[in-house]
Each structure stands twice: as structure tokens, then as C-alpha cells.
Design the sequence.
């Protein structure tokens, strides 16, 4: 049975064996991080005052690069859903870590989703990551009229 997260104007389903790791809250950001049982995390942050999606993603990647200078990243791209995303890879200890950042514009806010895990764990959980992201996007979509 999936668990449900529903706060700060977002809602999504996630596996009930994932743990809530941390929460962040201030005037500009509300965030939640879920920890995967096999290592890694799934983070969702709603930014109330923000830069353009591309600029915010670049700031995040720049900050990550301070910690992992050898990090590789793809260019920021736009998905079929008009979301901005970027994928990075870096080594931590002897493990290759994959991190995917997605920026979703919602009214005047920006929702940043970060999925990160060791590359094999990332690949195993990619369908779950996609399902959570779809669940989140469905909750952000305006209701359709019939």
C-alpha cells in the first residue's frame, strides 16, 4: 500500500517502506526528503520566490560541483511536459552516483524534484521515481472541467 505525502500544496504517493528523512521550511521554500531503503533519496521542494527554472537548476548544480568537482552533468533540457531537467553523475567513495533534478513551474512557484542514488540503485528505482513524479504532477495540474 503506498503512503501519501500531502503538505504545502503538493500531494504524491510513495512506497510505504521509504522513510521521511528531513523537512525544510522558511519563507521561500517548503521541502521534504524521503530516504530509500537501499540508499539514496527523493526530495521535493516548493520555492515561493525563485529565479527562472534554468537559473535555479544551475545554482543547484554549481553547489553540488563544489562538493564533487569531477561531477559530470548534461545540459539543462526541456521534457515533453515542459519541465526543465538535468542529470548529473559523480563518484562518492568508489560508487557512481546519479542525480536527476526536475523543475516544474506551478503558478508563481517552482517545484524542484531531486532523485539521487548509487547508479544501480537509481536504475532499479527509476520506474518508482517516474511514478512518484507523475503522482506529484497530477496533484499540481489544474482540475479539468467536464
Sequence:
Amino acid at each position: 500500500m503506498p503512503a501519501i505525502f500531502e503538505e504545502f500544496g503538493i500531494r504524491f504517493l510513495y512506497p510505504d517502506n521509504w522513510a521521511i528523512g528531513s523537512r525544510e521550511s522558511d519563507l521561500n521554500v517548503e521541502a521534504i526528503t524521503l530516504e530509500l531503503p537501499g540508499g539514496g533519496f527523493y526530495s521535493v521542494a516548493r520555492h515561493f520566490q525563485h529565479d527562472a527554472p534554468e537559473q535555479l537548476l544551475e545554482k543547484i548544480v554549481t553547489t553540488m560541483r563544489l562538493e564533487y568537482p569531477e561531477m559530470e552533468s548534461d545540459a539543462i533540457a526541456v521534457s515533453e511536459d515542459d519541465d526543465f531537467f538535468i542529470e548529473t553523475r559523480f563518484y562518492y567513495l568508489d560508487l557512481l552516483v546519479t542525480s536527476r533534478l526536475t523543475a516544474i513551474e506551478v503558478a508563481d512557484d517552482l517545484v524542484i524534484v531531486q532523485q539521487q542514488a548509487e547508479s544501480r540503485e537509481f536504475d532499479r528505482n527509476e520506474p518508482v521515481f517516474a511514478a512518484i513524479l507523475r503522482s506529484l504532477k497530477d496533484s499540481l495540474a489544474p482540475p479539468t472541467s467536464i
In short: The longest helix spans residues 119-140.
